[in-house]
C-alpha cells in the first residue's frame, strides 16, 4: 500500500527502544491499520474544522462591514427624518395651525 500524503497532520517518527520489545501491546495498537485510519480521520476532521472556522470568520467580517456601510447610514437618516417630522408637528402646534397628523385621522 502506497503512502498517502497527509493534510493538516503531523507525523512523528516512531520510537524504538532496545529495552522494550516490539511486541508490546502499545506498539501493536499504534501500528494497527485501524489506529492509523483513526488518526488520519482525526487529522482530516481537524483540517476541515480549521478551514470552516476561517471561512466563517471571513463571511462574518464581510457581513459586518456591509451592514456598517449600508444599513447604519440608512438607520441614521430614517431617525433624522422622524425627528424632523416631530419638530414640524411641534412648531405647527405652537403656532396654532391645525395639526396634519390629527387631520389625517
From TrEMBL:
Pfam families named in the record: Tom22
Region annotated Disordered, chain positions: 1-25
Transmembrane segments: 59-76
GO CC, alphabetical: mitochondrial outer membrane
Alphabetic keyword roster: Membrane, Mitochondrion, Mitochondrion outer membrane, Protein transport, Receptor, Translocation, Transmembrane, Transmembrane helix, Transport
Recorded topology in the membrane: Single-pass membrane protein
Compartment annotation: Mitochondrion outer membrane
GO annotation terms (biological process): intracellular protein transport
Family (UniProt): Belongs to the Tom22 family.
Protein name: Mitochondrial import receptor subunit TOM9-1
Amino acid at each position: 500500500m502506497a503512502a498517502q500524503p497527509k493534510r493538516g497532520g503531523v507525523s512523528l517518527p516512531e520510537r524504538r527502544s532496545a529495552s522494550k520489545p516490539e511486541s508490546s501491546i502499545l506498539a501493536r495498537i499504534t501500528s494497527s491499520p485501524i489506529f492509523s485510519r483513526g488518526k488520519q480521520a482525526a487529522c482530516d476532521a481537524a483540517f476541515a474544522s480549521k478551514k470552516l472556522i476561517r471561512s466563517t470568520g471571513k463571511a462574518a467580517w464581510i457581513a459586518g462591514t456591509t451592514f456598517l456601510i449600508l444599513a447604519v447610514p440608512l438607520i441614521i437618516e430614517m431617525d433624522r427624518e422622524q425627528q424632523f417630522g416631530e419638530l414640524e408637528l411641534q412648531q405647527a402646534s405652537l403656532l396654532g395651525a391645525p395639526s396634519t397628523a390629527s387631520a389625517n385621522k
